[in-house]
Design goal:
1% helix, single chain, four-stranded mixed β-sheet, Neuraminidase, 3 domains
């Protein structure tokens, strides 16, 4: 009998914990702690965050590859007007707005590449009442041009191929309330020709492949509003359609990418309202296999491009989103999403405070009890300890630095803002020269000897002023924020800072982001969630914003977002929604704290953020 050692040249090892080296891929070991045989598997796909669309929309079309995609048309909201003309181009990290399509529409389809695309069909009605189109437009990399229309008007259809050799199939021709169709058409770069129909009539399906080797899957049939969700898959050989093995999960309004023999599908609606999901399946040319990891954002009606090994998903609903996710087939490692976990409570419940340091060595100071406080506390990674108080009790102040070398500046009272500045050495606070512009809730960045203050609220209202601290004095810089605001988040260094969110008159939340290069501020990608009074940490190219408060009327937030220097991506939310917490401007994108804050009542709760990571794809072996 052949042994495992003879086959693979290694013995089955007894280990008390699972190995962490990628060399473990394909090997078998016995975990003595769990009493199980285990291995590490490779070849699974994973989703990761990408740059957000500039225009949120659903029921849009896509064309191209993972690093060179087009996002075409779609509905920009869940209310009229439904038919959008937006077109955007993706370079692998961010989206750029391109010239619009000529005919605004949603529920359209697309094919081709980023520089040679095609879009066709869709619902053109402004009120979403079912004005279905056969219009076709061609993209040359710089402009959209109307070309010959399809023979059959249709929306919610699918497609495969390139600009000069496209196939479109199924959909609905007179929605709402009309039956789905099976008709198929072929485009040769000039005109459309009817070819053999599909076996299963449906709409809201997905498709991919080429004009002569296409695959169609999923979808729905009438009667509305739910109908029958499909799992059926069909293969096209250039002449006729053949029914092949069905998907594991029936769904409609899904996305798909790949070839006839190697494909991927994800998300969609399983049955009806309230069942939107994120499940991913892979196609090997014969059958579908569920993938262990799914889209981070469950959605329907989104765009999807690329291949089985490198795909892109963007837009969709609900709610209408800009979220973009990138799919890659990896080796033995799989991602672990970033998350918040509970830490030790503050000794003094408060909000509207500030802080500094890292998650295992943090400082929290000032705030509202209610009543303004000077209390200062130090955190060692598990518990808070009281230390020397601020010289000037205040709230809505800002801090920069480490637990043993912090600068605190600005704040309230007085109502016109404070110019007070203090330095902390690990045990006591010492007054330092004041700021030039008295204000509260400015953004902050830098360290104790090289800090930056920007924005805030003072005697003249919301400010755009920027000041630089050199360790002995504050200097007003010529640079001002492009958007005057208060209560904004900030992080980075004195010469490479980023400011985001905040409040603008007359007390409205903003999502505006600006970057500072030591000389001037420039606009950058906006946050997904408008808010002020949030926590912030990291660098100009790797920042995190969390929690906060949104005006008017939306209230306390728990949302967490990552910034890559260009755009923001939504991550896992805080356990407890809150604003005005500490530390602010402290920590890194992968490790920071949220302590205290308003929920809206003052809190002592602490949460620690641990950023995304990877682990081996462990599998417990069983007998069957």
């Amino acid at each position: 009998m052949t042994t495992y050692n003879q086959l693979f040249g290694k013995y089955v090892q007894n280990l008390s914990s699972d190995p962490t080296s990628t060399d473990a891929e394909g090997q078998i070991w016995y975990n003595t702690t769990s009493g199980t045989f285990k291995t590490a598997l490779g070849g699974y796909g994973v989703w990761s965050s990408g740059g957000n669309l500039n225009t949120a929309r659903n029921n849009l079309a896509g064309a191209g590859t993972q690093t060179a995609s087009l996002a075409i048309g779609g509905s920009p909201s869940s209310a009229p007007p439904y038919a959008g003309t937006s077109s955007e181009s993706y370079n692998g990290s961010s989206w750029t707005t391109t010239p619009s399509i000529n005919t605004g529409r949603r529920s359209l389809s697309g094919s081709g590449t980023q520089t040679a695309g095609l879009t066709f069909g869709g619902d053109t009605s402004a009120a979403g009442t079912g004005s279905i189109s056969a219009a076709t437009e061609s993209w040359n990399g710089s402009a959209w041009t109307s070309v010959n229309s399809m023979n059959t008007v249709r929306a919610y259809h699918a497609s495969a191929g390139i600009q000069t050799a496209t196939l479109t199939f199924a959909g609905t021709s007179t929605a709402p309330g009309a039956p789905e169709i099976t008709t198929t058409e072929s485009f040769n770069g000039t005109s459309w020709t009817a070819v053999n129909s599909m076996n299963t009539a449906r709409f809201q399906l997905a498709g991919f492949g080429t004009q002569t080797a296409a695959l169609a899957m999923g979808g729905s049939t009438y009667p509305p509003p739910v109908g029958t969700t499909q799992s059926a898959t069909e293969s096209y050989n250039g002449t006729s359609w053949t029914t092949v093995n069905s998907m594991n999960t029936a769904r409609r309004s899904l996305g798909g990418a790949g070839t006839q023999t190697l494909g991927i599908i994800s998300a969609g609606n399983i049955v009806g309202p309230g069942t939107i999901q994120n499940v991913t399946e892979k196609w090997n040319g014969t059958s579908w296999t569920a993938n262990p990891t799914s889209l981070a954002t469950s959605r329907i009606g989104y765009g999807m491009t690329g291949s089985q090994t490198a795909a892109l998903a963007f837009g969709g609903t609900p709610p209408v989103t800009t979220a973009t996710e990138s799919w890659n087939i990896t080796g033995v490692t799989v991602p672990v999403a970033g998350s918040w976990s509970s830490g030790g409570n503050l000794n003094t419940a408060r909000s509207e405070m500030s802080g500094s340091g890292i998650s295992t060595a943090a400082l929290a100071f000032g705030g509202t009890l209610p009543g303004v406080t000077a209390a200062t506390e130090k955190y060692n990674g598990s518990a808070w300890t009281s230390t020397g108080s601020l010289n000037t009790a205040r709230r809505k102040l800002t801090g920069a630095g480490t637990q043993t070398a912090t600068l605190a500046f600005g704040g309230y009272p007085p109502i016109s803002g404070s110019s007070a500045s203090e330095s902390f050495n690990g045990s006591t606070w010492t007054n330092t020269p004041s700021m030039n512009t008295a204000r509260y809730t400015p953004g902050g960045a830098g360290v104790q000897t090289a800090a930056l203050a920007f924005g805030g609220y003072g005697s003249t209202g919301v400010s755009a002023a920027t000041e630089s601290w050199n360790g002995s004095a504050w200097t007003t810089t010529p640079a001002t924020l492009g958007t005057s605001r208060s209560n904004l988040g900030g992080c980075g260094t004195q010469t490479a800072a980023v400011g985001f969110g905040g409040y603008v008159p007359p007390l409205l939340s903003t999502n505006v982001t600006e970057k500072y290069n030591g000389t001037s501020w420039t606009s950058s990608g906006n946050m997904n969630t408008t808010r002020g009074d949030m926590g912030s940490a990291g660098t100009q190219t790797a920042a995190i914003g969390f929690g906060g408060y949104t005006f008017p009327g939306v209230g306390v937030k728990s949302a967490t977002e990552f910034y890559n220097g260009t755009s923001w991506t939504t991550m896992n939310s805080m356990t407890t929604a809150r604003y005005g917490m500490a530390p602010a401007s402290a920590g890194t994108q992968s490790s920071t704290l949220a302590a205290g804050g308003g929920t809206p009542t003052t809190s002592t709760a602490t949460e620690a953020w641990t950023g995304p990571s990877t682990t081996l794809n462990y599998k417990t072996l069983t007998t069957s």
